[in-house]
Structure formats: structure tokens, C-alpha cells
Amino acid sequence: MPALARAYVRWINRHGGIHGRRLRVLTCNEHNDSVAAAKCARRAVKENVVAVVGSYSQFGDSFFPPLEGAGIPYIGGYGATEDEFTSVLSYPVNGGQPVLLAGLGKELAGSCGPVSLVRPDSIAGDQLPGLLDSGLEAGGHPFAQDLLAADDATEYSAQAEQALRQATANPGKKGCVIPALGDRTDTFMDSFRRVREDYPAVRTATDLGSVDQTVINASGGASGPYEGAYITGWYPASSDPRWDTLKKVISEEAFSDNRIDPADAGVQTTWIAYTVLRTVLERIGDGEVSADTVRRTLDDGLKVTTGGLTPTLQWRFEDALSAAGFPRLVNTDVTLQVVRGGQLVAARRGFVDVTQTLQDADLP
Hints:
The structure is a single chain. By secondary structure, the chain is an alpha/beta fold. The protein is about 35% helix and about 15% strand. The chain contains 12 helices and 11 strands. It has helices at about 1-15, 35-45, 60-70, 95-110, 130-140, 155-165, 185-195, 215-220, 245-255, 265-285, 290-300, 355-360, and strands at about 50-55, 75, 90, 115-120, 145-150, 175-180, 200-205, 230-235, 335-340, 345, 350-355. The strands form 2 sheets. Strands 4, 5, 6, 7, 8, 9, 10 and 11 form an 8-stranded mixed sheet that branches. Strands 1-2-3 form a 3-stranded parallel sheet. α2 packs parallel to α3 (about 60-70) and α4 runs parallel beside α5 (about 130-140). The longest helix has 20 residues, at about 265-285. The two termini are about 30 Å apart.
């Protein structure tokens, strides 16, 4: 994410900036620590930034208060925290894990037998069964079995065994196991691979918030545990030509930087977030650029097109998901992808809108 941000700024500035003004990017690594996340936010305030763009952190409760106190907008987070969908200064570009789980349930309802969900034993994890079940219910499927797991474990053999037993409870239809453990999903799948041999008639599925192409590559590609798995994503598959401009920028500005993979969901989200910022700055034109003017421009009905990577984005206070607890969630589209030959490819054309499914979700 930081490497792409720097490459994007080099690309913009090499082509004359925006209205002749050069962009400057500051990066701050919070190392997955709540105290450090708050320090990064306070640094943003001290540096008088106009926006925090394309970031990722699990500690929204630590970094949002300083940003809100200074009126600094947060554009295009990863959808990792509830705050991203509730703070009036948040402008998310995807629907985070809520849309991915709801969409996954909706897509799998017609093809799965018993479904086992393995999710973190945490406050954030408590929302996941309701989201998945809302999608399953929309397709006329019984609710998933809810299995709790520590989100800091080093192996998950017991949970994998239990999930497989439950998923094969009905021999008449292939069951599905859905790990939703964030960055521990790969650890679960390593345990899952070792015990799966006794349960061949099981399909796996997960979401792009837990697994992307980089994880699939690192786990063995076509010979790895994700082969054949269904995965819901926020955006088109990385092979889609709509990503060509991103790939061109990486080639021109960071061709030797192996940290930037155009198939990485964080890279893709950062690209879209900077597309939003660029649209805002072009709308401001020759006027004053500040956190206040960026925020006002976003709140004034600005519509952002992203070349088909998302629906047209617009953040309004009257959006339909306020009653469901997601007032800032404006992109409810998901894509369905499948791992074939070690590559994430589209399993169906186009996007699926899960607005109604989210409205019907029974959340704690």
C-alpha cells in the first residue's frame, strides 16, 4: 500500500500534477499496534494532511478520534473496522467484510450442503454469522454452523476437523467450509489441508478480505489448498483489462519494486482510493486545498467513477444501509471468483448487489 501510494504520486507529478500542483505523500506503519495507530493519526494531524488515503488498520477506535478531531477525511480504508462504516469522516470505496460474507452466503446457498463457518472468537467476529446467514437465507438455505477460533492461534487442526465433520453431515450434497479468520485464514488452511484427506466431498470458500492472489501463490498455487475454492471479492479479477492503467503505472513508476502486486487487494483498494482523491482535487480546481475543502467536496454530492472497478461512488447521509448499522457503506457490490489453475478468475460475469441481504441481516 505505501509503495503504491508513492508510485501513484510519482506518476501524477511526472504528468504535471493536478492543476499544476504536486502531490506529496507521507506514510506511517502502525505495525498492527493500537498505540502506534493512534500515533500515526496524530502525525497526520501534526503534518496538516488533507486526507488519509488507502490505509489499512484494525484499530479504527484508536486512529479515528484524532482524525475526527482535526476534520481529516479517511478515504478508501480496507473495510477492516466498523468505524469505517459509521464515522462521518470515512469515505469507504468497498463494503469490507460485511458485503463479502453476505455475498458469499447468497452465492453458495444453491450449491452447498451443510455450511460450516470458522470465524474469530471476538467482538468483530460476532457479526460474521449474521452476515453469512442473511445470504444463505436469501437463497433458501439453512443457517451455517458457527465455529469459534482464536484469532492468534498457530494451528487450527481441531477446528478444521470439526468443520469437516459438520460439512459432511448430509452425504447427499457436498458441504462447504468457510474460514473467515483474516490474516489467520492461511494458517487455518494449512491445518485444513492435513486433515481433509478423510473428507474429500467438501468445497471450500472464503472472501477477499481473508485471501487474495498473493496468498494463493504463497500457499502453492494450483497444488495448494485453495484450488477450486469460491471467493467473493470487491472488484473484478486481477486479469480483467479494467486494471490495465494500474499495471501501467506500476510498470512505469515501480517496475523494480516487488512489494507492489496488482493482484493484491490492498494495492487495488489504494489505487481506487487515490482515484477518489484525484477526482476531489480536480473538482476543487484552483481553489484552496485543505482537509476542510476535501471533506466538503466529498459531502457535496460528488460522484466518482472508477473505470468500472466499482459502481459510481457517492457518499450521502440518506443511504439505505443506515438502519442496518452501516451508514457510510455505499458500495454493496461483490464479485464471485474461483481458483482455477492457481489463479483467481471470474466465476460469473458482473457484480452482485447485496443491499437487501445486508438490510435483512440479524446482527448483534
